[in-house]
Design brief:
Blueprint (H helix, E strand, L loop, with lengths): L1 E6 L2 E4 L4 E9 L6 E7 L6 E7 L5 E3 L7 E6 L4 E6 L8 E8 L10 E2 L3 E6 L1
Parallel strand pairs: 2-11
Antiparallel strand pairs: 1-3, 3-8, 4-5, 4-9, 5-6, 7-8, 9-10, 9-11
């Protein structure tokens, strides 16, 4: 079992920045990849970014490339999402997730409770 706790969400104006953090605990040695997803009202949950636990390989949604950066600190068992140049369409609940299998666009086993990000126009 892996437990995930997110933090760092909030309200920001268009063009602003936020950094999300997610701390993993429990069976952290089983983690192969960590990811951020988001879901806004009426839409499906979508992958924002993901990073391998053993390499520097990353995946980004086209909508956030060049604006968001995912990174990890394996010593602290933490994954970060640096979000710059935020837009109103980035407004969503952001979820941290981990995979015990591999880096990819799906197949994440454990999820955090979510943190709200609201970008005002």
């Amino acid at each position: 079992q892996v437990q995930l706790v997110e933090s760092g969400g909030g309200l920001v104006q268009t063009g602003g920045s936020l950094r999300l953090s997610c701390v993993a605990s429990g069976s952290v040695r089983s983690i192969k990849a960590m990811a951020w997803y988001r879901q806004s009202p009426g839409k499906q949950r979508e992958l924002v970014a993901a990073i391998s636990s053993s390499t520097r390989n990353t995946i980004y949604a086209d909508s956030v490339k060049g604006r968001f950066t995912i990174s990890r600190d394996n010593v602290k068992n933490t994954v970060y999402l640096q979000m710059n140049s935020l837009k109103p369409e980035d407004t969503a609940v952001y979820y941290c997730a981990v995979s015990t299998l591999q880096l990819g666009p799906q197949g994440y086993d454990y999820w955090g409770q979510g943190t709200q990000v609201t970008v005002s126009s």
